[in-house]
Amino acid sequence: MKFLARFGFLILSLFLILSAVFAYIDYKHLLVEIEKKNLLIEVWFNDGYVAFAFLIISFFELLVKNKNIKILIRVFLILIFLGIILKNVIPIEDFDAGIENTIIFSGIITLVLLFAHGLKILYDKKYKLPAANKR
Predict the structure, then answer these.
(1) Which are the contacts of 26, defined by CB distance < 8 A and separation ≥ 6?
(2) Which domain holds residue 20?
């Protein structure tokens, strides 16, 4: 049970990656059909970006030490996951685009935070600050 509690969001990320792979296969078939009929339609595929951003935020959730921030990130990930799963059911115009833009923007911010966290660790190791190593 501890394994599921600790790595549950990574398992959800794996689910999103698998669904993105299947959606990409459908996307490729759609492109072949569009090319056969010589239609001028532009189709975007964002599921891979969404799965990657969800995975990055899940890794960040594992690195965070503060319990309240961890809970906030988990609630955010659950809401995003439910939005991704139910985006075809909710009758709001461009709801799926809003969910995708939110998770991609959050993933970019998380990458910046991870980069800053890595720089802090490197700085602490280089200058061997005793207070940072005792946490």
Answers:
(1) none
(2) 2-133
Per-residue pLDDT tens for 81-132?
888 888 778 888 888 888 888 888 988 999 999 999 889 888 888 887 665 5
pTM of structure:
0.67
Structure tokens that stand for 131 in this block: 């207070």
Distance (Å, whole) CA 108 – CA 114 = 10
The H-assigned helical ranges of 37-94 are 47-63, 67-85
Number of domains in the chain: 1
Query: For residues 22-58, b (16+ Cβ closer than 10 Å) or e, as one string?
Result: ebeeebeeeeeeeeeeeeeeeeeebbeebbbbbbbbb
| Neighbour tally for 59: CB within 10 Å | 14
Per the rule left: phi > 0, alpha: psi between -120 and 50, beta: everything else, 32 is alpha
- Determine the pLDDT at residue 133: 53
CA distance between the termini of the chain: 26
